[in-house]
Design brief:
Helix content is about 85%, strand content about 0%. It is mainly alpha-helical. The chain has one domain. The longest helix is centred in the middle third of the chain and has 46 residues, at about 20-64. The termini are far apart. The mean pLDDT is about 85. Keywords: Membrane, Transmembrane, Transmembrane helix.
Amino acid sequence: MVVNYFMVMERLFRANGEGTTMQLLDLFAGLLWLSSVIFLLFVLDAIITVIFIVNNRQRQRRWA
């Protein structure tokens, strides 16, 4: 038996009717998308911070 994502979510939420299930799936997908965007912004911030620290140390070595 093949179990897909929709079957798992439908049993998990036990929603009444197909419309409610799709609304819950859309909500879950939206939250997943939002959390992935926030995570990518965090990673980008960390990369920019590391680059700034490395450049700042190189400048200090030049003037020392």
